[in-house]
Amino acid sequence: FVCYLYRNKTKTITMNTISYPSAEATAKKLAERIQQEVEKSEVYYLALTGGFPAIPLYQALANTPIEWSKVQIYYASEVMSGQQKGLHHLVAKAHLFDKIEIPSSNIHPINTDNAPEAEAERYAQEILKTLPKVGGAPRFDMVLMDMTKDGHVAGIFAGQHDIFLEEPIAFANAHPSHGDQHVTLSIPTIEGAKGLALYAFGGEARFAIGDIINLLPEAKEYPANFIASRCPWIYLYADAESMREKSYSIY
């Protein structure tokens, strides 16, 4: 997986990619990685994001023997308005939380009853109070983000990555086309995590992945590509359908 580096330079870096023929096998591999990391931790701080595309991953996590009592779960993004209001938590609850034994106090949802700006501030304060810090900044053990067909990450959409580089912890943002409000972690907060993983199942994101791999100009607008270029420790877990547009001989 080849990515652009920004700030007036264009060069390539290799992104760690894990791919299996099926979504189930790819999601299982990511779930097993989290299981292993939880085993080595006293407390494991995990941030989720994704609606329906996250279902294979949540099913894999639910079927993996993880010590959930050690896991504190947050969200990298939530939809605050429109028909998909609260979708990320609803999908996680139906396909993960309702299937596992985890204390309710270990789950830290974004409150969609609050105004987006007020909730971004409240959530930022909750994160600051409860997460370990490095250099005064909160640090997640893992942030999981779905790789979308338009290359957006959490609630950061195409062409917006430069806008939110200086945002502290969390912020409110509107979708540029339909205006639905989101609360999302800032780029510095995402980048500060020990582990970062994008995931793509079913082929919906194959053209965005192909744009990045093939160094097409469109990729420069993708927040997923922007974060990957700044974080060489990021992984992409993508099934075969999602990797269909790859072309480099190394694959």
Q: What are the key terms here?
A:
three-stranded antiparallel β-sheet; single chain; 251 residues
Average of pLDDT: 88
Computed over alpha carbons, the radius of gyration is 17 Å
**Secondary-structure class:** alpha/beta
Please report which band the strand proportion falls in: under 5%, 5-15%, 15-25%, 25-35%, 35-45% or over 45%: 15-25%
Helix and strand pattern: EEEHEHEEHHEEEEEHEHHE
Oligomeric form: single chain
**Distance between the ends:** 9 Å
Overall number of strands? 13
Give the proportion of residues in helices. 25-40%
Shape: globular
Largest sheet: 6 strands, parallel
Tally of DSSP helical segments: 7
Catalogue the unreliable spans: 1-13
Kindly report the spatial arrangement of strands forming the biggest sheet: 3-13-12-9-4-5
Give an account of the 3D structure.
With 251 residues, this protein is an alpha/beta fold. Helices cover 28% and strands 20% of the residues. It is built from seven helices and 13 strands. The protein has helices at residues 23-39, 55-62, 87-95, 116-130, 187-191, 206-213, 223-230, and strands at 2-4, 12-14, 16-18, 44-48, 71-75, 77-79, 133-134, 137-138, 142-146, 170-174, 181-185, 195-200, 235-238. The strands form four sheets. It has a six-stranded parallel beta sheet with strand order 3-13-12-9-4-5. Strands 6-11-10 form a three-stranded antiparallel beta sheet. Strand 1 (2-4) and strand 2 form a beta hairpin. The N and C termini lie close together (9 Å). Mean pLDDT is 88; it is low at 1-13.
